[in-house]
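Q: For a teaching session next week I want to show students how multiple molecules come together into a single three-dimensional assembly. I've collected the sequence lines for a complex. Could you give me the predicted structure tokens for the whole thing so I can convert them for display?
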Amino acid sequence: MKAAAFDYARAGDLAEAVRLLGEGEGSAKLIAGGQSLGPMLNLRLVRVGLLVDIRRLEALRTVEEGEGTLRYGALITHSEFEDGRVPDAGNGLLRQVGGGIAYRAVRNRGTLGGSLAHADPAADWISAFTALDATLQIEGPAGRRSLPLAGGLLGAFTLDLGETEILTAVEVPRLGAGARWGWHKINRKTGEFADAIGVALLDEERGFCRVVCGAVEGPPVVLAAVAEALRAEGRQAGRALVPAAVAEALPALDPVGRHLHVVAVQRAIDQVFGR
Amino acid sequence: MSEKPEPSGTGIGVRVRRKEDRRHLQGRGRFVADLAMPGLLEVAFLRSPVAHARLTGWRKAPGAEARCFFLEDLEGLQPIVARSSLKGYKVSEWPALARDKLRYVGECVAACVAPTRAEAEDLAEACGLDYEELPAVIDPLAARRAGSPLVHESWGDNLFLETFVDGDIDAIARTAAVKVEREYATARQCMHPMEGKGLLAWWDDRADQLVVHTSTQVPHVIRTGLAECLGLEQRRVRIAPPDVGGGFGYKCILQPEELVVAWLAMTYRRPFRWVEDRREHLVAGANAREHHYKVTAYADARGRLLALDAEVTVNVGAYSVYPFTACLEAAQAGGNLPGPYDFRNYRCRTYSVASNKPPFTPYRGVARPGVCFAIELTIDAIARAVGREPAEVRAENLVPGSAMPYDNVTNKHYDSGDYPESLRRAMARIDLPAVRTRQAQGEPDGRLIGVGFSTFTEQSAHGTKVFASWGIPMVPGYEQATVRLTPEGGVEVRAGIHTIGQGLETTLAQVASEILTIPVERIGVVLGDTAETPYSTGAYASRGAVMAGGAVSRSATALAGQIKAIAAHLLQCEPAEVSFEGGRIRGGNASLDFADVGRAWYLNPEQLPDGVDARGLEATEGFKPKVDSGAFTYATHAAVVAVDPETGKVEILDYVVIEDCGTMINPMIVEGQAFGGSAQGIGTALFEESPYDAAGQPLHSTLADYLLPGPSELPSFRIEHMETPSPYTAHGIKGVGEGGAIAPPGAIVNAINDAVKGLGVEMTEIPVSPRRLLGKILAARSGTPSGLEAAE
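A: Of course. Below is the structure for the complete assembly, covering every listed component.
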């Protein structure tokens, strides 16, 4: 299939991009890497009146180091994380996750901001950045605002982002040098979307522990009780709580789906502690 | 196999690099989508959105009515009809565009034309359909029951054909020590050549011909079928296929889209093109493989197979394809289920069931991946029932080499080879004792190790007798080729079979080179174009190397005689003294270049002897094997897998292929066929599946939903050749195109079952997706009574 006809404009700066989105009167859409939008346009699952290309906006390609934080421009590509061309707030986690997204050709073009804005539940970044407690920076006609990722994901494919707003950057607290992480993705073959994702982070220095169950029907689920048990009582206590926590958070799962999510989270925990 | 001297030159047995690869590696191949022509219009099809409905009305795109075509507009175009002489066979009429009923999602209903594909799709979207939905026929077993909705009301049931092979089972059933009963299922699949279907058709006023550049395996057969549907004389249809990016069986059939595009070109006398996209391909196109088996096997206490009782149901979809009909699959299933095994009591009933799914096309191996899966799992089940090593039980049941040639219980004539030897070598290469030791030790990561084997025969180049017994519209006979010496001493080979990626441009040149000793670099091969080549039924059924190879051999041999007669005169010796060596012609103490003979015939006929053979330096001969029931290739595949019992994920740790396709023309190409086929077989075993919901909606419309194995899912295949020449074919060649795809589901699922046997789990349905396998493991853990679906 071929895409239906649309207009195309390349924004010269952020302000112009915001203005073009506004002029589109609801039918304009941003394109950056185009790794999800491109196929959806071709399959005619998405129609746009105007495609606003922000690929060349250098302001969205920077990484800023703050006080214990890192701020990634939305146009950083998956391969830039994979290749270690940007600092890793996750102490190696982001490099691992970025290198496991789809295929290299996709990673070369696909962007962090595009992936988070698309909010596909089975994608990797929303789980990883939920675990890292990320905050999104958003620019719109009314100015700038911040949005915590964990609260901003309203459902599958739905981020709390207005039609004329642009996700410009992602800010995350930086893990300490001694922090450990576990990332376990279950999928049928290399490069495919996940059937289950488990993320576990333990930063004893900062007293931060988070466990996430991802690739579910909606936004990634933060398993707070599991994390608390892990931090306070250790590996086995946390691990033992996973089945009940997953069952409670995701009651609609069938036994196979539930089992896969439990295994993914438990294996992520095991990785934190070294198998 | 190793006593033979190392072959030299570029003849048979040499690992010659493929001639066609230069253009393909440089991106200079020319496929349908690469063709350009002034005034070309692209075609997009409006397809049925529902599986089963009565079509009550339609509307053309407002303002563009002249560019939209429904069936009533295609004056004179006949539907696709494939007849069979098999008793009780019901004929379907497959209209180029659906008219009264919609019978599957994706069925063509209208064609829209525009200068670009996107605009043509805009028009298709702007057309409208009115229909009344009917209950869909999806499950083949339900479709057989009385009271099922009917795909073709006039039939009274949903059966294209029911066949029955009776055999004496009952006496053995009463006394056999072991009885094993199983049901097996193989998913509906979609075959995936890199290039989908497509064609460009135009009218050549000078030749007064419709010219069709279609991506096909069978150009001459398409000419016959297309001419009949269009009502044109066959001489006024030329099929000139460009490069074809793989076929696997999908491009063996005449398609409705071909009819429509050809009709447009014929009617409007301008070029039209349709290029199938991957979504059309997945939803409406290359469907295959959906089988269900009920098998009861009887064996003695050592596991010797005594009798087999089977019922095979094939879900062939809404219509019969041309020319292979809807019965080929079930006929092959019933005939090939006994496999390479030595037993004499067999009973089998087959059902070819119509449903509201796309028509079914023979796919690499045709029914044999299914039957091999069924019989190989049954052999392992027998071995487990008698408590013995499955590989040993398999070895004892195989037809022994000493029995060759051997006519099996369904009268398949196994011509040559040593089946147990291929299994023994596979056991040695996979190192069965070492695998058993490792298995007993357990893995540090908790995964379970298993090993499985699968031995099969591949009836290659099955010929006139076999196809005539099915009575289908196309029965292959003699294959012909033309071989010509050119004035400068080069060679032209022309054959009607087509090159579809299988390397025929190289292997046919090697056969000519074997006889003439001229290197393949100086041998041009022209294939497929009906205007330039002798009639051929085409590239399918692993017949290219045997049939076209045989034809080139015969023609090159005839040409060699003609060359020698002229050369003898020029060398002043007797023709019997003339020989070819390293691309030169020798006689007595002198020698000539082939160009000397070429020049004499074409440019200096005054040098020719009186009474020279007036056929000159060109020969067209035909070939058929001495026994045309097929040359039987065979192989054993062995797999070692690791199963993660917590995720259901299967990794292939080792994979061995021991194959015997008779004399190999080019071992490198044989290996390529084995590897590629095995990769597809691994897809069948573990990944590929076209699921439908109860309303007949396909749940797979992109390659994100339909998983193909990629490089990281495939093992490093280890291959070893045996080489038993067929007694019936030229040079002892047997076919090799399909075999790789046949064995993997049997070997891999046997290995999985070997791995999980301690969990009380046995897989009988493919693909063995993690979800299926984990579901069974969880069900076994929770004590659900073998409840496979408990977790679904």
